[in-house]
């Protein structure tokens, strides 16, 4: 396909400048960032971003769960609204591109389109909202997608505000401390767009530069408490020990066994274990496991949960401890809006960018939002498939390609008067 030369491209100078600046907040000096939600570094990044929005004439809004919105009205009060964004919080010792790229690309894309309509004398038909969702990562407070899930109505605000970190601090306390307990009404758009690094190597292998996600896997976030009896690791006879970590180890192995039994249709992990009292010479009395089960089909998730629950008593008995599931956060599987998939592909074709379709196994704020309005995530390649690590990297050229597609999607939606049914065909 011949590349069209009359389509505006992302302002790469702005995109890369914003990307470099946001990467300073929580910089770990080894290429990554450490910016968990509602920490001082996260607050600093949000303060900077709100300043960027305000200086460019956006109306900055903060809702009562700490989501940040920048609204730009180009087409009048009753015009369709397009929301674009992602999140500025990171994993501990995570990568600089995950989430933050989607936020700065959103601002860069809207600014590029605003300049285009001004210079060409185009009358805009849509208004725009840039969003930075609160607690996408779920590293400090569980579950993930917290702000977007409250926004979409799948979690209550009271539940979200009461979430507690390892130190006993709640979301409500930290929102107030950082100044992001807002009271503004949240904008309600007609669609939501999000651009993100892939976090896998499928695009690299296929030589693709753009990939709309067509389907999102479901997930169960399962918290399991294993209770034994605290005692000394020296004199306590081995046959009298009630070691909570030993029981946890049996359960962790079972969680992996489930994935091995259902190869490629079930992904599992236990990536966090909280041990009490966590001393090297005390038989641990308690271990709390944070297990995750991910699958594209509800039946597989139902099966894996049932298998895990059935196995717990037997596994616990092997270590002379008890084990119970104390919480399950459920995220259903689903599909992104097919019109937005077609739109992303048409936008990529205008630049002759190689493309492919993918599922997303990871969660994104668009997954939560997709339950209430048309939404999509568009992926760009991750070098070597790395994500959630300091060497996470996407080339400047691929960052720009994702920005080009985002601008073109905005352009097509605007030219179609906000109609998603017509946007893929708008030229």
TrEMBL record:
Q: Return the cofactor note field.
A: Binds 2 Zn(2+) ions per subunit.
Binding residue positions for Zn(2+) 2:
98, 137, 388
Which ranges carry the Peptidase M20 dimerisation domain?
216-312
Listed cofactors: Zn(2+)
GO MF terms on file? hydrolase activity, acting on carbon-nitrogen (but not peptide) bonds, in linear amidines; metal ion binding
Q: Does the keyword Hydrolase apply?
A: yes
Q: Which UniProt keywords apply?
A: Hydrolase, Metal-binding, Zinc
Binding residues annotated for Zn(2+) 1, in chain numbering? 87, 98, 196
Q: Which family does it belong to?
A: Belongs to the peptidase M20 family.
Q: What NCBIfam families does this protein map onto?
A: hydantase, PRK09290.2-1
Q: What is this protein called?
A: Allantoate amidohydrolase
Source organism: Puniceibacterium antarcticum
């Amino acid at each position: 396909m011949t590349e069209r030369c009359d389509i505006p491209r992302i302002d790469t100078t702005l995109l890369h400048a914003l990307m470099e600046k946001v990467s300073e907040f929580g910089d770990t000096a080894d290429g990554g960032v450490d910016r968990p939600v509602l920490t001082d570094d996260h607050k600093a990044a949000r303060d900077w971003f709100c300043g960027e929005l305000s200086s460019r004439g956006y109306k900055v809004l903060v809702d009562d769960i700490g989501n940040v919105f920048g609204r730009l009205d180009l087409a009048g009060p009753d015009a369709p609204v397009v929301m674009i964004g992602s999140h500025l919080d990171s994993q501990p010792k995570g990568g600089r591109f995950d989430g933050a790229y989607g936020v700065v690309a959103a601002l860069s894309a809207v600014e590029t389109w605003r300049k285009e309509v001004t210079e060409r004398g185009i009358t805009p038909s849509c208004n725009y909202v840039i969003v930075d969702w609160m607690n996408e990562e779920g590293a400090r407070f569980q579950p993930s997608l917290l702000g977007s899930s409250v926004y979409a109505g799948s979690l209550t605000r009271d539940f979200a505000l009461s979430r507690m970190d390892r130190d006993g601090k709640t979301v409500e306390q930290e929102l107030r401390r950082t100044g992001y307990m807002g009271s503004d009404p949240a904008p309600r758009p007609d669609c939501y767009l999000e651009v993100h690094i892939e976090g896998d190597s499928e695009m690299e292998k296929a030589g693709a530069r753009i990939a709309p996600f067509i389907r999102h896997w479901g997930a169960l976030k399962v918290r399991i408490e294993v209770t034994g009896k605290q005692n000394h690791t020296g004199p306590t006879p081995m046959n009298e020990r009630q070691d909570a970590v030993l029981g946890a180890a049996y359960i962790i192995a079972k969680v992996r066994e489930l994935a091995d039994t259902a190869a490629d249709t079930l992904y599992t992990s236990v990536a966090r274990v909280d041990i009490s009292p966590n001393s090297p010479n005390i038989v641990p009395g308690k271990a709390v496991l944070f297990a995750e089960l991910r699958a594209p089909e509800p039946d597989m998730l139902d099966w894996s949960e049932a298998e895990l629950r059935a196995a717990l008593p037997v596994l616990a008995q092997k270590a002379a401890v008890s084990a119970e599931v104390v919480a399950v956060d459920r995220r259903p599987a689903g599909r992104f809006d097919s019109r937005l998939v077609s739109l992303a592909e048409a936008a990529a074709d205008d630049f002759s960018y190689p493309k492919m379709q993918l599922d997303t196994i990871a969660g994104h704020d668009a997954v939560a939002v997709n339950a209430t309005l048309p939404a999509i995530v568009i992926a760009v390649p991750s070098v070597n498939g790395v994500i959630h690590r300091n060497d996470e990297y996407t080339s400047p050229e691929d960052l720009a390609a994702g920005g080009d597609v985002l601008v073109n999607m905005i352009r097509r939606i605007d030219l179609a008067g906000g109609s998603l049914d017509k946007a893929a065909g708008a030229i």
